[in-house]
Amino acid sequence: MSTHTFTLNGERVTVDVEDDVRLLWVIRDILGVTGPKYGCGINVCKACTSHINGKAFNPCSVPVGAISADDEVTTIEGLADGDTLHPMQEAWIDRDVPQCGYCQPGQIMAAVAKVNQCKAEGRDVDDDAIEEIRNICRCGTYNRIREAIKAGAENM
Amino acid sequence: MAHHRLASPPKETGLHRSVGRRKFLGYLIAAPTLVVAAELAREQVFGASEAFATIPSPPQTPEAYDLLDALRDAARPTANLIRVEVNKDGTVSFALPRSDNGQGIITSTQMIIAEEMDLDVDQVQVTLADARPELLFNQITGGSSTTFTTYTPIRVAAALAKGRLLEAGAQLLAQDVRTVTARKGLVLGSGGRSIPFSALAEKAASSTTQQVEVVLKARESFTVIGKAQNKTDARDIVTGRKVFATDLQIPDALPTVICRAPDLNGTPGDVDNIDDVRSMPGVTDVEPVSTGVAVRARTFGQAIDAVNALKVSWKRGTVAGENDDSVLKRVKAAELPMAVPAGVGRTIDRSFTFYFASSSSLETNCCIADVRKDRAELWGPMKNPIAAQGDVAKICGLPVGAVTMHVTQGGGSFGRKLFYDAALEAAECSKAFGKPVKLMWTRADDSRQGRVHPMSTGRVRAQINGDSVVSYEQRHTSVATQINPGLGEPVSAAAVKAPLGNLTLSESIFELTQVTPYEFGVSTRFLNEVDMRFNTTSMRNIYSPNVATAREVMVDQIADAMGKDPYEFRRGFLKTDRLRAALDAVAKKGRWGRSMPKGTAQGLGIHTEYKGVTAALVEIDCRPDTVNRPIREGVTGPRVTKVTFAVDVGLVINPKGLEAQMMGGINDALALILTSSLHLDDGHFVEASWDNYFYTRQWNTPPDLDIIILDSEADEPGGAGEFGLAATCGAIANAYARATGTVPEYFPINHKDPFPFEPKPTVPPIPESPTDGLDHTY
Known about the structure:
The complex is a heterodimer.
Chain A: E1 2-8, E2 11-17, H1 23-30, E3 50-52, E4 55-57, E5 72-74, H2 87-94, H3 104-121, H4 127-130, H5 142-154
Parallel strand pairs in A: 1-5
Antiparallel strand pairs in A: 1-2, 3-4, 3-5
Chain B: E1 6-7, E2 23-29, E3 35-38, H1 61-64, H2 67-75, E4 82-86, E5 92-96, H3 105-117, E6 124-128, H4 146-173, E7 181-183, E8 186-188, E9 194-196, E10 210-215, H5 234-238, E11 254-259, E12 267-271, H6 274-278, E13 283-289, E14 292-297, H7 300-309, E15 312-315, H8 324-333, E16 346-354, E17 357-358, E18 366-371, E19 376-380, H9 385-396, E20 403-407, H10 421-433, E21 437-440, H11 443-448, E22 452-453, E23 456-465, E24 468-479, H12 488-495, H13 505-513, E25 522-530, H14 544-561, H15 566-573, H16 577-589, E26 600-609, E27 612-621, H17 624-627, E28 639-648, H18 655-675, E29 680-681, E30 684-685, E31 704-710, H19 725-740, E32 746-747
């Protein structure tokens, strides 16, 4: 067992756990932050999508030992600015996107990162860009997700 | 663009019989604050079908009495226990004895109560009730029945509560009760005076339980029902605060995973290295249980590592050595013969195979259990918690009353959570360890050992003579769908009331849900089920998507044989104007018959069930550039480019929620017809995760989606949860056939393609999590 320190949703956290435990379980089972969901554990369903240093990643596929003290991890719980929701969260509510909601934290974190990526690369947030998002929604609310991403992007 | 609108109602007199201002019975319950309850009264709103100038088929059971009626009749004797409570803070509470897995019934129930009590939707608190054995059959969520069965009793209770509050308010104001009104939780009197519900909750309470007559709000004065309402838990969802079972922090309920057999339903024998595994990092307990070897650990990751390290001698499973072909052979051997011999007219025969499909939701099977010597407490997403409570009590050796079942909100169900496999295992593990457990199935467990939609075949024979269809016969033959305990008991209980005769349970449900809605002369529909060795469940319908696909493809074939346009043919042969209105709506809005490039085509499908009708017009692109478009580790294939869908489900509580349910069904239909199936090989299902089982993704979903909500001005809501699939399945299959010139004989159409993936091993049972996640950031 070894000690790992990093920043989670703006707070310094320290945990004692084996290096090879994937970050998803450190966040959920040890730190009790449960926004990122388990859906496959092999970086396929993307339900755990969160941000590391501002970029989308899947903590189910990152050993905690690979996280450095200066890494900033943001889960869905850290996306809003206090009570002020992120424009993507607002778009999600406005379009009544969620059904069961299980995949939605990952969907929103993926959407924010995809929009940032498109902006950085000078691309439009169009259907082609959205179809690069691999997150599964088993309730099948894909069409509202598409609308919300486009609406959210306009306010980002 | 998906959007909804209220279209003008189809003209059909049978739907307009009004409930009117008739009186319902409610109960005042003796309690410190105002508590009311309600009892159901039978309403026959939906009339019989009309006859047409074609050769009429005699009425089929669902046209007069369907599964929703059966579920409501079963719920009737206990529905008077549904209680609405007015709290001291002026809010109104209701514990809904149903399970919400994303279908939005908490929101729609808030709306129903808010409407009747003139409250804002957010002034109504709806939670999911714990298991209440006294409710008998009235705590089952299935068959798209929730709103249909609970709509009236909830309104009766709410109306009674409001009446009592008005009376109490009028007394305090010293005004005539006929002059006071309610709005947003206030009783308003003349002269601008008002009293909040909070000040009346105790005053309006009853010291005795008594029966009271009550009149419901007239539909014309509805201001909440029928208005688009966003889900009331949306903010919790988008901020990560919505709590699912595995998010609950129950003291000492540590992650628990079961090591499962390579064979479907294989069972554990000896474990070679149990002590070694017990000493692995984070591991607290390892014990054999009936379905495998259970590991409890500090984190799920460590439990999974320990599961994969176990060396277990496995006993063979229930379908050892078998594969798709051997099971299909059994199913085909059980197909019932047609009643009308070939050659009566011009005979068209078609047969279809529907392969196994996974009902996996994104939240895998899960449950928290804390089993003690004298009591047990469980938390899980259960659609039938009463039956679960009874079975858990048996496992724990406890009386039913010592078992508490908390129903958590579920991360999708689609039929899967009618069963409670995880609750039974969690109880067994907690008992074996003597400690609380948070049990979760891994994705590989859920995909390979979890419940499936069964393999089935559809055979259809039609005989045509000139412009008439003389006979139409359909045989649905299936690996047995396990219906108990989710739907079985209420249907059996209602069977004595339904015009069914002496049918088995599966036959009853088939007979209660399936109808051939065309005037096709002699019409027979039979179900036969074989092979009980699989873990099965309904999956956004039990039979309808498959039965409707076979039927709608056949309808196109009959039209083709007669040289008729598929739309005009359906228009002529459909049994009701209500169905024709839905068909017309999609044909008009979706521009049926418009010119399409070669390799692309439109297709139609219709369906009737759940007191409603649906129609779908699909456009598909089967051109090679589209079919072969590259997607890493994904299945592309033909692209459904546009879906125009019309639904008339009677009274619409929440158009946004109804549209969401249709959207989900449409995306499920894409998966069932084009991309998603399980392959049985050597006694196990090959697919172990979402990179093997190709449920609809963003790159499959139709870029153009138009959902039209038709208002038939019916007085009651029908069912919605499963209603988007059947018509869409048929329409996609027809569009594919018209685009390619090939009528598919099996579904999904890619089932026999080479695997676009390397199958994952069965031992160890769980694919290891990658370690390169930081190489794939964006």
